[in-house]
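Section 4.2 – Deliverable D4.2 (structural model, holo form)

The reporting period included a commitment to supply a predicted holo structure for the target in complex with NAP. Inputs used:
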Amino acid sequence: MKAIVVTGQAAATAGMKLVERPEPQAAINDVVVQVHASGFVPTELAWPSTWTDRRGRDRTPSIIGHELAGVVIALGYGTTGLSVGQRVFGLADWHRDGTLTEYVAMEARNLAPLPGDIDFTEGASLPISGLTAWQGLFQHGRLQPGQSVLAHGAAGAVGSMVTQLARQAGAYVIGTGRAADRQKALDFGAKEFVDLDNDALEDVGGVDLVLDVIGGDIQKRSARLIRAGGTLVSIVGPTEARPVDGLAIDFVVESDRAQLGEIVQRVRDGRLRTNIGTVATLDDAVAAFNPTERRAGKTIIHVRP
Ligand SMILES: NC(=O)c1ccc[n+]([C@@H]2O[C@H](COP(=O)([O-])OP(=O)(O)OC[C@H]3O[C@@H](n4cnc5c(N)ncnc54)[C@H](OP(=O)(O)O)[C@@H]3O)[C@@H](O)[C@H]2O)c1
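Output (structure tokens):
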């Protein structure tokens, strides 16, 4: 089968290669999924799980990409809850070969049924951005109605989900990003927008929750805006910035069947819009993940035509 692999951290996304690999076998509690569409986040390449297994042993060349939508074609020993022929979507284990390929073996519990009225491309765009936003806001951020949320990168893949989910939960959302993203962020539900290149972030005043997708100096400055008891949640590396009197949390998204079900239901009933910018084939995936110009929205790889 065709697969996109990486062999060394230094090469980053430019080091991705399209290769031939043997098809995987289903282990206990696994399924094998025929991948129809797949996504990828660049931070994967910075996480140890891309390079080693759970015992710390080198597992390169590693198949990257960990979100997918597809069809179950085989069940492992003792696997329950899913059946052969079922449409599914979900998030594969970070320590195992991933989803930028034609077939993946993964634990059934990391998948949820994909309703027939959601296409595979949409389904593959939801696990990482949807679950990250959900877990950042509701699990780690403990968002309450009436609170204010600073949603960085609000026109991006995660930020647009954060903006929509926070707004629906009764929060006041202040989005940030590039000047060109203002209208997109407002359309996703932000009440205000801060152009980080030209506006003063500090003019925002106090907020209860910061959802950071940028890091560095923006993260540090955002921490100072947090009201007493508020939280800074980061998804881009160790949180150095501490709110004066609140929590700082850095996390990596994990799969959750119930949350995937909630997210896809919101897409079905029109409460959540996906944010897909580019769709490419597996043959063109390396170029798609190394764009020469700025790309808005999420890149999804259509594995099966
Ligand atoms: N920890 C986790 O579990 C987890 C999960 C998902 C994603 N991530 C990571 O989180 C980050 C965001 O992911 P994503 O998929 O949402 O990416 P994305 O679609 O590229 O969205 C990020 C948005 O933020 C904007 N942005 C970034 N830096 C900025 C700056 N300095 N000033 C103004 N705007 C800025 C980007 O604009 P430009 O494109 O112009 O820079 C883009 O609109 C990535 O690094 C990703 O790898 C981590």
